[in-house]
Hints:
By secondary structure, the protein is mainly α. The chain has four helices and two strands, in the order H-H-H-E-H-E. Strands 1-2 form a two-stranded antiparallel sheet.
Amino acid sequence: MKRWQFTTTLAISLICLVLGVSIVCLSATNSAMQYRLQMQQSQLNNGLLGQRGQQITSAIVQEMVNVSARSSQIRATLIKYGYNVPASAADRENDSDTSTRKTPATKSATTPEERTTP
């Protein structure tokens, strides 16, 4: 083996070694960063979107159920996305002699795969 061949092979080997070590270091850094981001996302979901978000969502759906008494498009949209709108909720909005207690909308399907669109 000539001297220039040995030097070239040694240089390529050192470059491969440096690249291999840098890949391992970057992988460890990326894993740590991914863990931190998952923890932040979990905190956001639990804090901002947790119980308060569920309360807001249920209140919005309840208002949509109440408005669906006057709008067939909203009623159709609620049904399309898996909410069962009780007929009594629509009738109660039109009937002024009934109590003011609201009937909550119920979710019939929990995932998009379980829902069937007309």
